[in-house]
Amino acid sequence: MTHLVSLSRAARLAGVTRAELQRRIRSGEISTFEGEVAIADLLRAYPSVSLEKTGMLEQVERIKADALPRSHDADTALPSQEVLVARIRSLGRALARTAAQAEAQGALLDELRERLIAGDAGTALLGWLDARRADIDSLPAEDGRARLIANDTFLRLMSASVKIIPSGHEFFVDGTESILAAAVRAGLRLGYGCTSGNCGECKARVVSGEVTRIADHDYVLSERERQMGYMLTCCNTAVTDVVLEAAEARTAADLPAQDIRAQIRKLEREADDLLLLHVQTPRTQTLRFMAGQRARLTLENGAERELPIASCPCDGRHLQFSVRRGDADDAFAAHLFEGQPTREMVRVQGPAGEFVLHEEATEPAVFIAIDDGIAPIKSLIEHAISIDHIEAFHLYWTVDSPDGHYHRRWCRALKETLDNFAFTPLVGAHAADLVAMVRADLADPQQPLYYLAGPSAPVRALADALMAAGIGAGRISAEALT
Question: Which of the four, 311, 320, 337, 396, has the lowest number of CB atoms within 10 Å?
Fold first, then answer.
């Protein structure tokens, strides 16, 4: 009997990223069956797989912990006792079915042998059947296939897979987190509002699998909705692997306009004229946005500015912005630089902008940041790591002085812990310099997708230079900052 697992679970079993697994599928090294991979094929591609996590998976987990903002570390531990017991029961039922099927198949082989003997079948066919039965009976307990199946069983105890239809997106629910929290962490944009069970905006239908409630909610599902399998993703977690029917925001236009009263949590001075502003939204009003978008911030004194969001959508409560000191009339920057208004309230309106990631694309991506264009680029890269679709990344960041690479620790962490990430820091590079470096670094400069961000004039010049070098306009996304 063929044992099939989803692509996401296959990547976890093999200890590689989903992007690496998809690369090998595209090259024909691994076959898929309706979006799933056979254990036998996975073992042929990764013969040294073991019960322990391999280095690549550990690297990805470490980079997500170190380089991405996380506010829910406590939720990535063991599942709750109730969920763990429910998963053990579910796996027990599945194991019982598998054992019964194996016993029935053994009985079928015995019956087939008896019928062949009764029909005076040829000795060659009987010999083949006996040899195959002996092979099955003599399989070692610790062969590669058994090891992978055991690993799969262990992973199913620790986390459940959720697949969304019609999009086909898949993610894991770890620890005690809700389905909604896990989806947001994975970079998906399911519909939601309060996240506390009051509004019903996160309602979704369970197509298959088992969920359990982990929090009470005031929103009342109708009797018909309950019969159809609807539940609130903010108040339920997955017990088994689950298929959900749920709407997702696929484009910037699908996201609602939001107006949130948030709080300034921290101000980090990166240079005499640069602050990193950390803003936290209320727990019940997480900002829904796409990586690369902007938000308008209004301080209590009425000063306002629209800024690129420099953080990942996977943590919409903790927003990060880069703020440059402006001229003497810049009341927004003056209040932040001189007043240091930590804990002060700030109005967040958004999101705005269409400089977003091509999420379904698996081609390599080249990110080019000019000066403070690193803010939206940083958001794009963190989101790309979160969804794990892109084959390879290369970040070029040019600034006016060597001290201008204020996210150097973040860049270095990515480069040191991700095998498919490259970082090239530059000083004073112009469009021609950047295009020359890209052509020198890449075997095929026309293959990647390009994301450019920075001041208007150099970004336009760079986009024109890339197109002059043969890069199609459709492969270039640009954000011109004012």
Answer: 337
Q: Calculate the alpha carbon distances from 324 to 12, 37, 219 in Å.
A: 42, 50, 44
Segments forming the whole domain that contains residue 430: 365-481
Alpha-carbon torsion (175, 178, 184, 186), positive or negative: positive
Q: Using CA atoms in the order 331, 333, 337, 343, what is the torsion angle rounded to 10 degrees?
A: 90
Give pLDDT tens digits for 285-334.
889 999 999 999 999 999 999 999 999 988 888 999 999 987 767 899 99
Are residue 201 and residue 75 in the same domain, yes or no? yes
pTM score over 0.85: no
Q: Which residue has the tokens 């017990």?
A: 239
> Is residue 468 a part of any domain in this protein?
yes
Question: Is residue 37 a part of any domain in this protein?
Answer: yes
In angstroms, how far apart are the furthest CA atoms of the chain?
Answer: 102
The Cβ of residue 323 has, within 10 Å, a number of other Cβ atoms equal to 22
- What DSSP string describes 96-141? HHHHHHHHHHHHHHHHHHHHHHHTT--HHHHHHHHHHHHHHHT--T
Q: Is residue 321 part of a domain?
A: yes
CB 117 within 8 Å of CB 134: no
Q: 295 with 409, same domain? A: no
The amino acid sitting at 202 is C
Distance CA 460, CA 252 (A): 23
Burial label for 124, CB within 10 Å (0-12, 13-18, 19+), is exposed
| pLDDT 10s digits, 1-38 | 567 777 777 887 777 777 778 778 877 888 887 778 88
For residues 30 and 43, the answer to whether their CB atoms sit within 8 Å is: no
Which pairs with CB-CB distance under 8 Å and at least 24 residues apart come from 193-199?
Answer: 194/234, 194/284, 194/285, 195/234, 195/283, 195/284, 195/286, 196/234, 196/283, 196/284, 197/232, 197/234, 197/235
The verdict on 136 and 231 lying in the same domain is yes
171 and 271: one domain?
A: no
Residue 57 CB-density burial (10 A; 0-12 exposed, 13-18 middle, 19+ buried): middle
Q: Is residue 358 part of a domain?
A: no
Count the domains in the chain.
4
- CA-CA distance, 333 to 350, in Å (whole number)? 20
b/e per residue 142-153 (b: at least 16 CB within 10 A): eebeebbbebbe
